[in-house]
Every structure is written in structure tokens, then in C-alpha cells.
Amino acid sequence: MGNNIFHLIAFLTVAVWGTTFVFTKLLIVNGLSPAQIFTLRFIIAYVMLTAFSLLRPLFLRRKLQASQPDKWRKVQHRWLSSNWRDEMLMLALGVTGGSIYFLSENEALRFTTATNVSLIVCSCPLFAMLIIGMFYKSERFASRQMLGSLLALLGMAIVVLNGRFVLHLSPLGDTLAFGACLSWALYSLLMKPVMYRYSALFITRKVFFYGVLTILPYYLVVPGMPSLEVLLRPTVMANLFFLGCVASMLCYLTWSWCMARLGAVKCTNWVYLNPITTIVFAWLILDEQITSYFLIGAVFILLGMYILNKK
């Protein structure tokens, strides 16, 4: 099996993330703002992970405390990193992979088209490859892998443009979208120093904590949260539960796990598949149509991914 299982998990993680645009749209229809959705889903994820982290040692104490003391120490709950430098890295991960990423992506939609935002944000793997390759020689790609990345990028562009080859330039909106793309690339870079020293559970919990903490100043400018009547609607509760527990808590855990085994660049390349899963779920849930451009683009993406992952 080798690393195939981790490639499969990375693919499934991106597939779930591709559905979040659909579920987020359903929440927006119910009156929630993108910032409120991000805050609530990260709070849900943080509470769930913290509860699991606190309860986990209670179930493993009898089994590990006597027979495997080293492993016992690793599973015990901890609130802080080993040193302040690592804690600052956790803060940076919460900003780049949480508050700044989601805010810049969502705010970009106010000033430019969804097509522009999708094209720029989904080109993240290429930027991640270039940025990480500047710092880590082991993560640099050969010419064959660069070809695969470009083919996947071309396929992603065909899927997103969907035959409408007209881009409406908006300096502010496009800059914000590029900021989201760069933010996720930096998140991938910053994961490198910590992903071998801390567990995926600890890192993910820190990302959610600092993501929520650094989004709070936004509410000084745009105050307000959804009313209890809105939050208790079955549709809203179900979508928030999915976004918080599955798309946030579970997927950030699996993503950290895969990055530690595959490397930041190889793992991030699976983001190219994001538009495919988004369109498939939009077709299933929102009755949006699948066109021939989608099928052609999907072939390019899959071909590019095959070249990227071929030994």
C-alpha cells in the first residue's frame, strides 16, 4: 500500500472541502454571513476536539500508564506548545489557515466574480510548491512534476471558467483572492517545522483556537451574530454540524496527518480536485448543470494528478 492510503485520505479530505461551498451557500440563504459561518464552525470544531483531548487520557490511562509510559505522556492533554516560539507558530497557523484565509476569500467575493476567486484560490498548489521549494530542497519538484501541476491547473481553469472565457479584472477583489491563496500556501510552509514535533490533534486544536481568537477583531467593525431562532432551524443546525465536525474538525486532522506523511507540496496538490467535487455536489444538491467543459477539465485534472503522483 505504501503512501497510497494517505493519498486516498488527502483526496477524500479535499472532496469534503469541495462540498463546503454548497453547504455554506445554504447557510447564507438562511441569513448567516460568511464570517459568522467561519466563526461558528471553528468554535464547534474546537469544543469537540478539546473535549476529545481531555477525555482521551481517561480511557487510555489504565492501558498505557504502566506498560507504555512514553506513549502515555504523548496522549495527555496539553494547553501550550513546548516553547513560545512554537506557540507563535501555532498562532501563525491559526491566522494563515483560519481567519485570514477565510476572511480574504469571502471578502474577495464582494468585489470580484466567483470565477476569479475560484481560479486564483484553487491555484494555491502551484504557489505552495514555489514557496516551499524556496525553503526546503526536498520539496522541490522535477520537470515532470511541474508538467503535472500545470496540466491540473489547466483542467481546474477549464472547470471553473465553464466555457465563459471572460475574466472581469477587479484589483481589490483579485488581490484579496490572491491573499487567500498566499495565506494557504504559507499555512503549508509553516506546518513543516511543527508537524513532526506535535500530534495532528494538538496542531489542529491550536489552529481552531487561534483562528477564532484572531477573527474576533472583525466583529468590532461588523458586529452581530445570528439569532437563536435562526441557529435552531434544523437546516442551519445540520449544516453547521457538518461544517464544524466533518469539514473542520475531521478534515483538518486528516490533512495534518497526510502532510506529515506525504509532504506539504504533494498533499497540497490534491486541492486541484476541489472544483470537481464542488460542481458534483452542486449538481446533486442545488440542481446546477454539469457541462462538457467540466468533463474535459476533469480529464486534465486527473491526468495532471496521475503525473504528479507517478513514481
Can you put this structure into words, describing what you see?
This protein is an all-alpha fold. It is 78% helix and 0% strand. The chain has 15 helices and no strands. The protein has helices spanning 4-29, 34-64, 69-75, 84-111, 114-121, 124-135, 143-161, 171-194, 200-215, 218-221, 228-231, 234-262, 264-268, 274-285, 292-309. The longest helix is centred in the N-terminal third of the chain and has 31 residues, at 34-64. The model has no long low-confidence stretch (mean pLDDT 81).
Which regions contain 5 or more consecutive residues with pLDDT less than 50? Answer: none
DSSP summary: helix tally = 15
User: Could you tell me the strand content as a percent range?
Assistant: under 5%
Instruction: State the end-to-end CA separation.
Output: 14 Å
Extended strand count:
0
Note the run of SSEs as H and E.
HHHHHHHHHHHHHHH
Largest sheet geometry: none
Helix content: over 70%
Gyration radius (Cα, Å) is 20 Å
The shape, in one word, is globular
Classify the secondary structure makeup into a structural class. mainly alpha
On the 0 to 100 scale, the average pLDDT is 81
In quaternary terms, these chains amount to single chain
